[in-house]
Specification:
By secondary structure, this protein is mainly α. The chain has one domain (2-425). It is 77% helix and 0% strand. The chain has 21 helices and no strands. Helix 6 (93-108) packs parallel to helix 8 and helix 16 runs antiparallel to helix 17 (333-350). It starts with a helix and ends with a helix. The mean pLDDT is 82.
């Protein structure tokens, strides 16, 4: 049955069928051939129960928040401000890409939205200033992955919903690894450009007065982050309520900056509906597939497989990491999460691992999947923004950052407190 699911999933995805529909098709197939019960009779109730959650309401709010920031020009101003502060480093403007992605991640919650935003703003600069297209585009794709690690994160919300884990605790746990990844991306870029200065383009310095004035353009993003995260950890709002406050704040800032008009509002709402619909279709389809897989006994089979290996906790987690790395090459990241979480997380927790820690480890592996071919979404987003050149350039440029993510995974396994320290003290 495991082979059937894997082959069926890959085969249907190669036909360019939407992921959510693929999950329903697989679920129906498993129901017909592997389960003795007519599960389709309960499909309506399953669809309702899997989507009827106040927690999931946070998703469209965070998506709308990101859409407002992009379409009102706030993201572009943030990029220009960070360019003035850190383009003196070897690598120049590449660091502004990573820093902007980091700040935008602190409000948008979506990796794809973060990558699209930074790529749209940065690519014209790369062509004008003569940067190496590989490293420049690879850094944008990698920086965009921080959108699902640095809170607020849509993927962490989905993980918390599926595992009944505290979302505020997950947000706290993702903060240090997310910032550490951003700094590591900058460090590896510096090292590469010190060895090969021709890859980084020219470094740029700006007068102190300009740099200080540019700080004003960073205030909106920092203010939104403080409001969203602060209201959650002060206990004034749930993540869903904080997301709605963030939308109101983003709209007020956009209005004050003159970025609000009818087209901006229409495009923001349309984009939110499209992205939210895609996410919810995947969540509902995966819930149905997980239900059929559970009824067919796949969870017991997988548990028996891992137990049959005779591995201890460390060996088990290494096998799980390897499974996610391999599946990440072929399966869209949100689908990978919602399909595997109900099966893998109970096995991991049974080995004595903390579910919050494992959630952060999983997110690092999911981030890696976003920039590894053939299904790495961020690679396609950045290539779409380039509108020229080979897709291979983006893939090769992302390789150093994949290595960084592998190292972060190893560090999280060796030192779980990297993720657990902040939730424990707060």
């Amino acid at each position: 049955m495991i082979a059937y699911v894997s082959i069926g999933l890959l085969g249907l995805l190669t036909l360019s069928i939407p992921v959510g529909i693929v999950l329903f098709i697989l679920g129906i197939g498993i129901d017909q051939f592997f389960t003795p019960f007519p599960l389709l009779r309960g499909l309506g109730n399953l669809v309702w129960s899997s989507s009827n959650s106040a927690t999931l309401i946070a998703i469209p709010f965070f998506v709308l928040l990101g859409e407002i920031l992009v379409r009102s020009g706030i993201a572009e101003r943030t990029y220009a401000a960070l360019d003035k502060w850190i383009s003196w480093l070897p690598g120049g403007l590449i660091h502004a890409n990573i820093a902007t992605a980091t700040m935008f991640s602190a409000t948008s919650g979506s990796s794809v939205a973060t990558s699209a935003t930074v790529a749209t703003v940065a690519m014209p600069q790369a062509e004008r200033l003569g940067y190496d297209p590989k490293l420049f585009s690879g850094a944008i794709a990698a920086g965009g992955t921080l959108g699902i690690m640095i809170p607020p994160s849509i993927n962490l919300i989905v993980y918390g919903f599926l595992t009944q884990t505290s979302i505020p605790q997950l947000f706290l746990a993702g903060l240090i690894p997310g910032i550490a990844l951003a700094l590591a991306f900058i460090l590896v870029t510096v090292l590469i450009c010190m060895v090969r200065p021709d890859l980084g383009g020219e470094t740029r310095s700006f007068p102190l007065g300009k740099m200080i004035r540019a700080l004003l353009d960073l205030v909106p993003i920092l203010l939104l982050f403080a409001v969203i995260i602060g209201t959650i950890y002060k206990g004034w709002a749930t993540p869903t309520e904080a997301a709605s406050v963030g939308v109101a704040g983003a709209f007020a800032i956009a209005l004050a900056m003159g970025g609000v008009n009818l087209r901006m509002m229409r495009d923001s709402l349309t984009g939110t509906v499209k992205i939210t619909s895609m996410i919810m279709l995947v969540v509902i389809g995966a819930s149905f597939l997980n239900f059929t897989l559970s009824s067919a006994g796949l969870g017991a089979q997988l548990r028996g497989f891992l137990e049959g290996l005779g591995l201890g906790p460390l060996g088990t987690i290494l096998v799980v990491v390897l499974i996610y790395i391999v599946l990440g090459f072929f399966i869209e990241t949100l689908s990978l999460m919602v399909v595997t979480i109900p099966i893998i997380v109970p096995l991991v927790v049974a080995q004595g691992f903390d579910p919050i820690w494992f959630g952060i480890l999983m997110i690092v592996l999911i981030e890696m999947a976003l920039i590894t071919p053939p299904v790495g979404l961020n690679l396609y987003v950045v290539q779409g923004a380039r509108r020229s050149g080979s897709m291979t350039d983006v893939m090769l440029g992302a390789v150093p950052f994949v290595v960084v993510m592998l190292l972060m995974s190893a560090l999280l396994i060796a030192f779980p407190q990297i993720a657990l320290w902040l939730p424990s003290v707060l």
